[in-house]
Amino acid sequence: MLATIRADPTPKAPRGVSLARSRHPRAYQLAQRYDVGPETLEIGTASGVIQVAPVDFSFFFLYITTSSLRQNVSAMIPRGRGSLSLMRRQPLMGSASFLLRPQFPAASLVRPTVATGSPLRLVAPSIRFYADDAQPPPKDEDAAKKEDSEAAKQEKPEEKKVEEEELDASDPEAVEAARQHASFYISNVLPIKLSGFDIRPKLAEIREQTIMEQLNQIVGGLKGRHAFRLESYEIARKDGGVFFHFTYLKPKLTQLPRKHQGWTHEHAPEDEAPEPTSPAALFLPPLLESAQKHGGWPSWLGKWWSNFTDRHNTPKTESGHEYYRGGAVPVREPELRGWQRDAGAGRAWVVKGRQWTEDLSRYPSSQLKVEFAGPDVGQEVLYSLFRPYGRIIEIVPPSPVPAGALRYSILKFSRISTAVAASNCLHSYSTPTSQIDYDLVKKQPDQDVTRSTLKICYEQPLKGHYFRDWVRDHPKIAIPILAFLLGGLSYSFFDPIRSFFVRNDIEGTWDLEKYQTVKFVRDNIWLPVYNTLTGQRNRPQRKRNVDDLGRASWQDRMEAEANIEKWIREFPSTFIVVTGPPGSGKHELVHRMIEGSHRPSLEIDCAEVAKAKTDGDLVKNLAAQTSYWPVFSFLQSMNGLIDLAAQGLIGQKAGFSTPIDEQLRNMLDVVTTALKGVTQDEQEDRLEAARHAEREKKTHFMHEAARESINNGTYHDGRLDCIAGNGVMSELGFGQEPMTSKDARAPKPKEESTEHLVARAQAALADKPPPAEQSEDTADEAPVLDTNAETISTLPIVVLRNFSAKPARGDLWKVLAEWGAGLLDNKIAHVIVVGEGSLTTKTLTHALPSKPLNHVTLSDADTYNSLEFVREKLSSSEKDKDGNPKQYVLSEKEKDAIAKLGGRMVDLELLVYKVRGGQSITQAVADIVLRNEVELRKQAFGDDSEDAASLPWSRAQAWKLVTELARAPELSYEKLLQYYPFKGGDMALKAMEERDIVTIVYRDGRAYAVRPGKPVFREAFRQLEADSTFAAASQIAYNNSVISAAEAAIKGYEEELNKLKALIGEGDGLKLSDKSRGWLTSWWGESSPINQRAKYLLEQMDASMKKIAAANADNACQLEKFNPPTEGQGKCRTRLAS
């Protein structure tokens, strides 16, 4: 790559700085700072060719990026025409800086290779030239030598001075280019955010505007000093400080006061003088003076807090000790001293590096991690850099790090605020690495020394993560202990809370509907106002009651209520199972029985629990049904991850992850504990009520005895003895003899003594039973408590609604059944299970195999009640002219149509809705039957052959049930299993029952009949059979299955007959047959077992052949139904027998 040296024929000074003459260190510093610009001269490296423009310079700076180039550069300089001196070597960067001082115009520096006026060529690998002072060359050699001698004198350290040209104030661009940028950091203006939960920064935002106005007034005191101009403020919210950036014009040294031209440090080695023209020397003292003039630095808690913290945060000593002069007098200077002059003091600090604005979750701490982008920095240098900001407790030296990572040291401060200030001021600061270089740079800032850039971040104290690190380093010990602690916390803290909420839900402590005051307000105030405002249409709909099924009560429901009431008055021993089709009123029946018993109850809707798609949702749903709170369902996934990590670390699971079945059992154990507590509370309430009644009875008896004594004149008030005395001579006293019936005023019609009343009163006072001999006439009044009845009446009732209604995750039904069985075995509660199908009883039987179930089955309504229900509903919807409900009269045709629907409540309500919508009863019934017909065809036969193959039954079995149930209301269960296609198994029938295609009726614990799944299905079966096309296709499929079964049977018969034939042939030596006749005819009609078996096989083969013939004939007849009807085409008379 070729690059042209860019320089103007009339060169300019870098960035507006005008220098008449300059020594090389200063020139190098400026060249290094202003590396980019028109005065920067670039030379490429690819071709090794440099193009030099014919420009005159006094000397150049060469920055060579390739080692061992000094000889090559020296070879390019003509002898006696220039000198090359090493300025700085950077071994890590593989580069070096040289000073090239020509003794003639720069255009003659290199040997020309082309004609004059063309670019000159110089061979070099990679060189960068820096134009320095842009001074025209001298007119003669004498003047040049004179200037060189003066420059040589200026190179001596003791005569080091810088003379600058005057700045042209009329040139705004030159003034702006000459401005220097600097920043100050004001600490503790806002609160330091210590964690993500710290809300103090949010509270401080309320006073943020006021604080910034106060800070602006303080900074305004710097205006007018060295063209000071405030550029911007930058709030470090996480660190609680404020940066203010400003620019200024750097003054000449001669323009400064004499005391700033040189600082003395005769009393302390730390009292090094900063550069007189640095921002710290120019602006720090007046900034502190301005802050003091305005009452101190602002703070989010007020200036009183600011003054308090400033007084305690100002370091009294610089390095932990005082300094004395020869006269043993402590050093007392009114101005800033030592490190404060260069770094800052109190809360105002000079930003030496470059602040890093970030919003990471790294919160301030008292420890700083200082990374070195370069060689390691010694502890003495780190101490000198960081000590001005506050006391340092410890400096941890660097330790080995992985390859490619930066080495670092840890600095521990005594306060967090000092660490924050140091981090914001020294980040990205380039510092010498050794103390010697550090001291040398203090005296000569432009010295070429090895430097390293500091990268600072916060390091959290080790004690904050000690437990975490210990757990990480000792997983085999820590994980089991942690599991034990978490389990103990759950059982000791959370489980009592959960049990408390479950008990409150069962007892209805927070149920406002149970309080009489709330009921009165609702019924007499709220509902009337609500109905008036919203109208009749928006009134809350009452729940459907079993009485809606008809005015007349159903006999089976009366029997069911009586049975359930009898069973809940006994000790719990087995499940009370209430089953019935949808709409039969089983839920309302159970609800009414529980309300009538006045006992605490817990109702769990199992269908809502089974809706869960994940294990966490299953736990959450069960917790919602039982008021189990708090529940942490999200911890299940976390526990699984912990177990997975533990298995990778220690080779086995830690036990955090629990199977879903175990979780459900743990939850139900807490519910069991709550049920026990409910029983105990109920028993205590009953006992307290009995004691209160007994006390009331005793009090009442004492009052009656006293009243009787007063009437008889034998009552004595003991309070009179305090006045009259109770001796023999007392006028009003009774004396010492007890009063008897003889002392009464008048004889009683019936002589009776009151001594037994007095004895009973005294026994009541002493809380003892009365004497037996005096309680003869009141023996019938003594309470006789039935302990068992009282205990049973306090047991709660658990209701499992919609049990086994649908498949659920895990073993939900098994867990609930086993939990209910445990409640029954321990006599904790009665358990009522409400379901629909046989799966309910099957699951409960497995959970409690040793005891029979108390089973109640509700059936659909009969024809009379169905008609009454429809008539009443339709009558209530129509009104006559007077506004009274019009009685709806059903015709015979409508009654016949309604009878097709049966007594299923769901279908009857749907019929009423359709009739109210404008359809006639006949149309509505036809529509309902059609819908059920389509549903039945899809569920029983499938949409296609692939769908039918996935069904757990065959189409032949489905068609068999359709044809049989279309003719009869029910089929014998055992008889159905004796014939094809159900012969040999009942799995198909069980599967159809689960799909609600059929219903298996149980009697005395066994299945005895098969009925349609819904009453309307019977009419749907008839419609399917009446559909000629569908019936023909189904009948052909059924016949084909019969033919296949018969052919398979014939094949088996033939194989067995061949075996019999071979057996007879082998036994010919025993003269079992006569070969003159056939092997069969010789044994036909005889009593030989082989002959009898062969005869049986032939008979069965003949029967199978007849079935095949009948099936083929029926198929031929069914095929005719697919053809268009013709005249004379008759019906299929052949019907395949069962």
UniProtKB/TrEMBL annotation:
GO terms for cellular component: mitochondrial inner membrane. One of its GO terms (molecular function) is nucleic acid binding. This is Mitochondrial escape protein 2. It is found in: Mitochondrion inner membrane. Residues 164-174 have a biased composition (Acidic residues). Residues 557-1062 form the Mitochondrial escape protein 2 C-terminal domain. It comes from the Eukaryota. Keywords: Membrane, Mitochondrion, Mitochondrion inner membrane, Transmembrane, Transmembrane helix. Residues 138-163, 740-757 have a biased composition (Basic and acidic residues). The keyword Transmembrane helix applies. It is a single-pass membrane protein. Its main location: mitochondrion. Plays a role in maintaining the mitochondrial genome and in controlling the mtDNA escape. Involved in the regulation of mtDNA nucleotide structure and number. May have a dispensable role in early maturation of pre-rRNA.
